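Quarterly update from the structural biology core.
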Amino acid sequence: MLFIPYKFDLNLAKIPYLTILVCLLCIGIYTQQYLNEGEFEKRSVYYCNANLSTIDRMAMEKTFGDASPSTCLDLMFELEMSGNPETIIKDYADKSKKFAGFSESDSKLYIENLLLDKYSGYKRSVPALKTKALWYIPDSWNPVTMVTSTFSHGSWDHLIGNLLFFYAFAAAVELVVGSLAFFGVIAAMAFGTNVAYSLAMLSVENPLPTVGLSGVVMGMIAMLTYFLPTAKIRCFYWFLIKIGTIAVSAWLLALIYIGIDLYTLLSQEEMGGINLVAHVSGAFLGFALGFAFFRNQKRQIVID
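Predicted structure, tokenized:
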């Protein structure tokens, strides 16, 4: 059975303005990412279809065994997404076949310069990817991108899933702790989950960058469970061919989602493109922040 939380199952006493603002911020940022990605792809396709000279095609044939625009496109994407395009180009050139009339070393250098020139032209013709400027690279320890990566996403599915979970749990958390403290909680989770990811990736060569609100979402799940473990969260459910809605206790949802992430993190060598470190560290931070700073609020909830 699959549960997708979407709403705290009580009428909230106030409007959770910051929770709504975070959702709108994430939607606005990803809309800009999406529009930029469309323009990036269109310009990339045009460049590789319109700007391959005969000598460019020969160099690509010697290097990749194929001189089609799709090969050019794959190469440009790879170089653009990497942090060291010059090294990648040199590696490809070193493995290339020799041009007739050139020595081995001269041929490799010639192909390397041709590919560098082609990539330089590509950079001038294609807009920079906004997502690349927003994501967090774990070995950078950059506090600015720790923040920007938290509110950016990789796809509409990624965004919508995160915001459904976020609103279901964070709205109640905001009203329990207050708007000012809620802002501080989000900041602590944004920095804390990215620091945890950096620490986990210290021994990994070329670790993947990260984007998304998932670490904060897991923190909100844990914090609400600390405050109100038996509170009900409205969920869409899907069981075989049956779809509907149901109210599920916060502690059960926390057990399911945090438990699955923790088990996967500890049992698998590869994370499969999901930042499980951020998920698990976010859950830990959410519970720890609640216990350390908001025990009075928890007592007040019980008294009321």
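The chain has 13 helices and three strands.
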